[in-house]
Amino acid sequence: YLYLMTCVQVYSRFEIYTERRKEFMEKEKSEEFDEQIKNALRELESMTNLSRASYRRLSGETRTVLKEVEKKSDKYLTNLWITDAVEHVNKLTKRIHAGEDLWQSRQNVLNYLTNAKMCKDVIRRKKIFGDINVLVMLGVLRDSSSSDELMRYEKKAERLKNVYYVYYLALAYAKCGDYDGLRRTVNLLFSGTREIIDERLCMYLLFMFEGEKKLIEAWQEEMLDSANLSQVIIAITYFRECKNDSVAKKMFSILEKAIEACENSMNCTLAQKMQNDDLTVVVLRYFEAIPYDESGNLIIGLVDNNEDKIKSQAIKCLKNFDNLKVKDILLKGISSENWYVRYNSARTSIKMGYNKDELRGKHVEEQEHIEEQEHIEEQENKEEA
Fold first, then answer.
1. Which range, of 72-76, 123-127, 276-280, 350-354, averages the lowest pLDDT?
2. For helices 213-223 and 179-191, what crossing angle results, to 10°?
């Protein structure tokens, strides 16, 4: 027992010493090289090719740092080089998404990191970084040579069926522009036990794809006929965000079927009814963003729907149809008992340029009529009593 306790204490002390030494060495390398590495990465942005002439144009300090990290003899320096490089590419990507023209600068840095085989250095450090961080880094580095490693992770993901693991794998495929890999892993998300997948999560994956966008459009158009409600909703949302009107006719057909299903809801389970309602709302959001004249009568008909969320969304779509019937519907909606219906009716009316005083007058008139009716009913009840 004493021997075992001694071994445990010695092991614990050794682990504590190792961790402290690691922290000390990381801090020391960071203080010595961190700023130099960041300066080197900034210079690499303007390195248009990997020729010796381009290399010689770099500053002496940058060449010294790059030679030092290329040796890979100091694991703490290599770790710092990897984390700083990944962070730098991430910052450039965020600035590109914000509208800055830095695509070529990022590509210059990525070309150097690919040539330096940083992906292999990341893969060798699985135990240090952990699987999720390795997937994130491989995605950021966008190196096609990492495809074999991503395939190994995909087989592991099929066993684990962990939504976060699969998500970061899909994100890595998207950033690398691997359409087949992205499609396989997104299908893995839907093959799990979860019936509903957060649409924002999948939308982000689709928009982060750095390959041929037409492939994504064709895939999502195919998903409009899927038996999985989540996949259909994601496809509709994707086309709405892209402002794609080429599928408007298909959306109209989906809306017709959803309305028919809602009308036959007496023969449906509660879950099926909720699914039909959700689908109707999502298609209405599409038509709110992308006007389609043929949908006018269907949408106007949904204003009298029993479900407030459908009625409220239908009212928001009316901004695309400017006629007297629409105006009357909106003026009537302003006096609805439901707050969302009143709010969306008023907001849509203002978007369509209707007079605010007229809207207020109509609201007051309706309220007075309601109060008058309530007063008459109250008097009749008193007389009966």
1. 350-354
2. 30
- Cα 202 versus chain centre, distance: 6
Give 146's contacts (C-beta < 8 A, 6+ positions apart): 119, 123, 138, 172, 176
Amino acid at the residue 272: Q
To the nearest whole percent, how much of the chain has pLDDT over 70? 90
Q: Of 152, 151, 120, whose CA–CA distance to 137 is shortest?
A: 120
Residue 254 · residue 283 · CB < 8 Å: yes
In contact, 189 and 197? CB cutoff 8 Å: yes
What integer pLDDT is reported at residue 251 of this predicted model? 94
Cα-trace Rg, the chain: 30
Query: Tokens representing 82?
Result: 């990897």
Q: What CA–CA distance (Å, rounded) separates 61 from 59?
A: 5
Q: Is the pLDDT of residue 365 over 80?
A: no
pLDDT at 163: 83
Return d(Cα 339, Cα 89) in angstroms, integer.
47
Using CA of residue 214, residue 216, residue 220, residue 223, what is the dihedral sign? Answer: positive
Rounded to an integer, what distance in angstroms lies between the CA atom of residue 235 and that of residue 250? 12
**Helix, strand, coil share (%) of the chain residues, nearest 5:** 80, 0, 20
Q: How far apart are CA 204 and CA 175, in angstroms?
A: 11
Q: Is the dihedral of CA 88, 89, 95, 98 positive or negative?
A: negative
Contact 150, 138 (CB under 8 A): yes
The predicted model scores a pTM of 0.79
153-170 pLDDT, tens digit per residue, is 999 988 887 888 899 999
Closest by Cα among 85, 86, 88, 89 to 69: 85
Instruction: Summarize pLDDT for 65-83 with one digit per residue, the tens.
Output: 899 888 888 888 888 899 9
Closest CA to 203 of 177, 242, 169: 242
- DSSP 8-state assignment for residue 267: G
Write down the mean pLDDT value for the chain: 85
* DSSP SS3 for 318: helix
> What is the C-alpha to C-alpha distance for residues 245 and 291, in angstroms, rounded to an integer?
8
* Residue 132: count of CB within 10 angstroms of its CB: 14
Whether the per-residue pLDDT at 185 is higher than 80: the answer is yes
